[in-house]
Amino acid sequence: MTVPPVAAHVGADSDSGTLSARLVAHLTAAGETIAAAESLTAGLVAATVADTPGASLVLRGAVVAYAADLKVELLGVPGSLVDEAGTVDPRVARAMAEGVRDRLGATWGVSTTGVAGPGPAEGKPAGTVHVAVAGPAGTVTRALRLNGGRPQVRAAATEAALTLALDVMTGNAKPLRPPESHGVR
C-alpha cells in the first residue's frame, strides 16, 4: 500500500523521543522486535530507538546501506530494480524493509531511502523520501516530500519512519501486499 505524499516538514513540531518511547513500549508489550535498513538517515532511525530506555529488548539491529550495491548485497534489493528505478523508489524502500526484517530476524523491518539534498540525485529533487514498514501481515510504503536542509530532511524522514511503524503496528495503516517471506518471529 502506498500512502499519499506528505507535503510539509514532518518533524517541525513533533518529539521523536516520545514517539520512540511509544514504539518501544508497544513492541515490548507485544513481545516483538524491530530492525532498520537506512540510507539517507544513515542510522538515525536505529539511534533514535536505541536512545529509548528498554530498546535493547526490541531493537535487533540496523543496516546502513548508503550505496546501491550494499542495498543489493546486504538487504536483498533486486539489482534489476535498482538498475531500472534507482534507489529512490517505493519498491526499493519495500525491499529494504523486507530484507532487513528477514536478515536480522525481526518481527518488523523499517526502511528509509531518499534524497537529503541539498541538490537532486537520480533525477529526484531534494526532500524526496520513501519509508516502508514490513511486518507479519505485509508491507506498507509512504512517499514523502520534505522541506529543509539535509539535517531537517533526515530528521523528518526518521520521524516519518517511526510514525509509520507505530501506525502499522497499532492497525492505523493496513498493509495491502503480503511480505516476501513468512518466517516465524
Automatic annotation (TrEMBL):
A Pfam family hit: CinA
Family annotation (InterPro entries): CinA-like_C (IPR036653), CinA_C (IPR008136)
Domain of life: Bacteria
Span of domain CinA C-terminal: 19-167
Name this protein carries in UniProt: Competence/damage-inducible protein cinA
Native source species: Intrasporangium calvum (strain ATCC 23552 / DSM 43043 / JCM 3097 / NBRC 12989 / NCIMB 10167 / NRRL B-3866 / 7 KIP)
Organism ancestry: Bacteria, Bacillati, Actinomycetota, Actinomycetes, Micrococcales
